[in-house]
Amino acid sequence: MLEFGLHQGTSLYGRTPQDALRLISVAAAPGGRSLEVLWTICTHLQGQGYSTVVLDGTANESADAPGLIDLLEHNLWIEAPQGESTRNEQLLAVLPAARGLATLAPFERTSTAPLRGLQPLLRRYAVVVLYAPIPVLASCLTAENLASPLLLLEEGDKAVMKTYADLKWLALHAGLAGTVVRLAHGQRQRAAAHQQLRVLCECADTHLGRIPRTLALDPDRPADLQRLTLELLENAETLAPAGMYATLPSSRDTFCAAHFATSH
What we know:
- The chain is an alpha/beta fold.
- It has a single domain (about 20-260), classed as Rossmann fold, CATH 3.40.50.
- It is built from 9 helices and 8 strands.
- A 5-stranded mixed sheet has the order 3-2-4-1-8. It has a 3-stranded parallel sheet with strand order 5-6-7, sandwiched between helices.
- The radius of gyration is 19 Å and the shape is globular.
C-alpha cells in the first residue's frame, strides 16, 4: 500500500515526484540587454536539450494572459515539449509571473523554502529561469538558495554604482552575493570591462564584506555565451520535491494548464 499521498498512477506522469527542477535566476534591468542575455541563455539551454520555462516577473498575469498565479491557486501544472521540440527555441514557454512571485514574498511565505513549491507545477521541465527585477528576486530567494542570481553590468559612468546597489539589495534582503556579467566586444572593451568589474568587486568587498563572482564575455563569441550557460546550469539551484508527500495534480488539470505555455 502506497503512503505519503501518492497513488498508483504516479508512474504514468513520466517524471516521478523525486525528479529535481533546476532554478536559474536572472535580474531584469531597464533596456533590452538583460532580455538579450536571457534569450541567449534559454536558447543554449534548449539547444542542449534542456526543456526550459521562464517565469517573467516583469509581466502581470491576467485573464488574457494566465500564468504563475493561476498555477499556484489552482494547483495546475504544464506540459513541456518532448523530443526534438525540446531543442526548438521558438517553443520556449514564458509565463507571466509578477503576481505569483509576490505571493512568495517573505510576509506571504508559509514555508522556509517557498520556491520548492514550483517543482510539482513545473516538474515536466528540466530548467526554470526566474526573470525579475532585483527586489522581486530578493523577495523570493533566501540565503539557503545556493545559486546566485545573474546580474548584467551595463556600460556608462553610473553602471558600477547601479550594480553595486543591486548587490547591496541582494545581500541585505536575501543574504546572497550575485554573479555579475559584463558584455564586451573585442579586446579594448574587454579591458574596460575588467576595470569596471575590478572597481565593483573592491566596492562590494569594502562595504558588503563579500566579492561577487564576475565574468567578462564577448557576445559575438558563441563559445563565451555557451560557457556562461553551462556554468549557470552547473551551479543552478536544485528544487527537489518537498518530500514524498507532495501532492500531484491530476492529468485532467494538466490539460487545463497546457495553454499557459506561450512562445515568445
